[in-house]
Write a structure and sequence with these properties.
eight-stranded parallel beta barrel; alpha/beta; 18 strands
Amino acid sequence: MSYISINSDQLFHNFNFLDELFSQHQIDWAIVGKLLCGNETFLKVLLAMTDKEICDSRLSNLKAIKRISPETNTIYIKPPAKRLARSIVEFADVSFNTEIETMKALSAEAVIQNKMHRVVLMVEMGELREGIMLKNLMDFYEEVLELPHLEIVGLGTNLCCLNGILPDEDKLKTLAWCRNILEEKFGRKIPYISGGSSVTLPLLFRNEVPTAINHFRIGETLFFGTDVYADRLIPGMCPDVFTLSAEVIELSEKPVLPTGTAGTNLTGDTPEFSEEDRNRSSVRAIVDVGLLDTDFNNIMPKLPGISIIGASSDMLILDLEDNSYGIRVGDTLEFSMNYMAVLRAMNSDYVDKKVMPFSNSAAGKKARKSNGFSYISQT
């Protein structure tokens, strides 16, 4: 059976890299763990490294976090469905919001559960996904202030997830300006501005993040070491926290060009071939992972010279050329993965999940003693 593994050493290295970076800039940060899809095996690795807040957009994943670590502060990072108000208050310590009717439901549930539920108001800054329009923000804020058992602890925004609108210094300054206007009018402090995600990190490197931005939400860069803004690896970070491993179940030299009348394949495509390949053959391997398990366009064999020919629902076909590595049936081949490939593999029940433990016990102990701090959780 194929499996995806998480490298504890590399993940902890990336965590420490980011933690030091944010500490230098006096910025708090929370971990976006939605990529792990609530898998308790992998969540335990993450929670062993930090007591920072964990963000997720799936309620079931927050429930899994609370089962493992009830004291961990959780953030629900998409506008909640109104019907989920009771569970949001129960399992999310903080929620991101844009709808007043939903917030009324959260308030009512917080009263019933005798909790003070913390909220971040998401502001539309041009991406046109979730967010309160700037012209409506003051009236919205005033109405939320009247709701019992809700505490506004921050303003936030989301960028680059739908239309690819990138963050810039002007947008972040506008978000800070919103806080200043609200505080001045209503005489209430708004402690935090959650204006940063992985795509905002390059602005931090260039000193283009206003000092008022004091909270980031980081997922992709933690797990892949990527500069999302430029789609490249950040120097000093590790790219291979996740690895996909699959066993060779068939190995044979076959013609490069298929024979017969071509229709469409499983994905509705008709593959095209060059006549130059008519008399050419190569060694092909089939491994036990397929379209149900991952996106073959978003994985890459770790051995140079091996290429992916295509995939069906449960098999991946590889071109080994002359098989210079001497690969045999039963061998395991490894693949690097990007965000979308990991996400699909984590959602597949047909892909096992395995942990590569710390290479030495001292690193493991250091991880378990790591003490993060979350400003939002302390308000």
